[in-house]
Amino acid sequence: MNSVMDDNRLLTLASNERIRLLPHMRMIFEIRDLNYASPATVTRAGILFISERAQWKNYVASWIQNYTENEPFAVKADAKAARKEKLEALFDKYVEPVLLELRMNYKHLIPNLLDFGLVQALCNGLDSLLVVDNVGVKDAEHFEIYFVFAAVWAFGGAMSITSGTDYRKKFSQYWKDTWKSVKFPHRGEVFD
Fold first, then answer.
1. pLDDT tens digits, residue range 38-72?
2. Coil, strand, or helix at residue 121?
3. DSSP labels for 11-61?
4. I need a labelling partner for 182 at 20 to 30 A (CA). Which of 1, 41, 63, 98 fits?
């Protein structure tokens, strides 16, 4: 591995086949830890450490800032400020309690799904939903409806039936019992 990262840029496979990395090619390593990496490998690779401890909060702050800056010209400055405040309040209200509940009582279809990935899915959903056609340009009146829709799918969309427990139904019931500001029908699940 070291020869591909030094000036030779030559990858030698276990079969002794050699592959030269061209100048326009890049390698990305995604590793869980550095337990088996040699010091030479660590020094040659650009290491980026991402801690799971509430890194999603930095991502959310960046996402809200970017959303606010890229709102259409028709949204006035005071409306932008109100919309930014509303988004911050919605993230504070829903995300941390739901992530805690998921960690304590739920199993996802995808094991080891990180909080960061769930929050990123929420923000991607909001990118599609918080458009002028849906929320207008005047205020943040409808933001919570779209936020809840995106949150339900981001946090509960990867649930399944595991070991005889239907986690989608359990999540749906949890959401209906806990969050009452956006009403869901009594019949069916929040995903319907």
1. 777 777 777 766 666 678 899 999 999 999 998 88
2. helix
3. EE-TTS-EEEPPTT-------S-STT--HHHHHHS-------SSHHHHHHH
4. 63
| pLDDT tens figures, 7-42 | 788 888 889 898 888 888 887 777 777 777 777 777
CB 40 within 8 A of CB 2: yes
Other beta carbons less than 10 A from residue 128's beta carbon: 10
The pair of three-digit structure tokens given for residue 102, joined into one six-digit string: 């998921």
Nearest C-alpha neighbor of 155 from the set 113, 184, 93 = 113
Paired tokens of 7 = 């000036």
Q: What angle do CA 175, 176, 178 make, to 5 degrees?
A: 65
As a whole number, the mean pLDDT across the chain is 85
| Alpha-helical regions (H) of the chain | 2-5, 39-44, 55-69, 77-105, 115-129, 132-135, 143-156, 167-178
- Judged against a pLDDT cut of 80, whether residue 75 lies above it is answered with yes
Token pair 């490998």 is found at 41
Q: How far is the C-alpha of 33 from the C-alpha of 2, rounded, in Å?
A: 18
18: left (phi over 0), alpha (psi -120 to 50) or beta: beta
Task: Find the length of the chain.
Answer: 192
